[in-house]
Amino acid sequence: MEISTVARRVSSLQRVSRLGLGAVALLIALSAYAVTAGLWKLLGISWVAFAAMAGAGVVGYRSRDENPTALVWGYGLASGAMVTSAAVFLLPGAIGHHAQFGGFGVALGVLVGFASHSIGHRLAHVEMPLDRTVAELSAHALAAGVVIGVVYGNMPELGLLLGLAIVSHKGPAGYAAAARLARKGGDVTTLLLPAVGVGLTAITAASLQLPASPPLRGLVFGFATGIFLHIAMDFLPRCELGSEIHDAIETHDGHAHTLLDQLRLHAVASTVLGGVVVFVAWLLVS
Questions:
Q1: Is residue 142 in some structural domain?
Q2: pTM of the entire structure?
Q3: In this structure, is residue 260 part of a structural domain?
Q4: Helix axes 170-184, 68-85, angle to 10 degrees
Q5: CA-to-CA distance for 83 and 26, rounded, in angstroms?
Q6: Per-residue pLDDT at 9
Q7: Position 243 in a domain
Q8: Is residue 171 a contact partner of residue 239, using CB atoms and an 8 Å limit?
Q9: Which of 75, 191, 200, 256 falls between 20 and 30 A from 17, CA-CA?
Q10: How many structural domains are present in the chain?
């Protein structure tokens, strides 16, 4: 690699780091607005998302290599909780507003999520001014924040459980991204931008009030359900050859084939447990 290329990448990392610090300052300012507007739930969700990604990022950066068992349990718990929360707290509202448009919204959300994920992989070969993983996480966080803000802004009766389950994947995502940054010699503070991304757009989008149209509301809340279901399915811990879990096993101890079957059982247990936790929490809150 040429020295000039390395210098450009280092310079880009430094710019993104400053951008991340500026994003944190903006979230603090928006948090003050959220307090005055009474957006307490969104405020809590925003800072939990930040703490989850930033905290797990520090752990991942120090370890440098992803622990495959930790990845399986982190992804499994988060995806199980997200699937259950989207199905229980969002889907009934979407169908309740308008059954057909709610269903179309769910389908649209899943398809749009798949399309954005596929296009994101195509960007792997495009020269970008920042780390590709950080860019993808930032775009994902900002988009998810818009959906969360619109949902909570128009359904204030929703509890914290849904939002916390949705942002639970920020922890394992930050852990894995930080470990990759460490191996490439990157700066972990670049993760500050995706860490605050949810809060930046969620608090801002909460002021967007939807018209009192059952088809439109069914479509919007169905779309939110589909998006979050896609994210949850994307985070299911897959243990096939060539998967992130498989790569982490080889990086960690070099005995992939002897551990994959065991980790498949961990994957099932973690996803089921994630759903059970949401169910028990719902029973306690109810």
A1: yes
A2: 0.84
A3: no
A4: 150
A5: 31
A6: 47
A7: no
A8: no
A9: 75
A10: 1
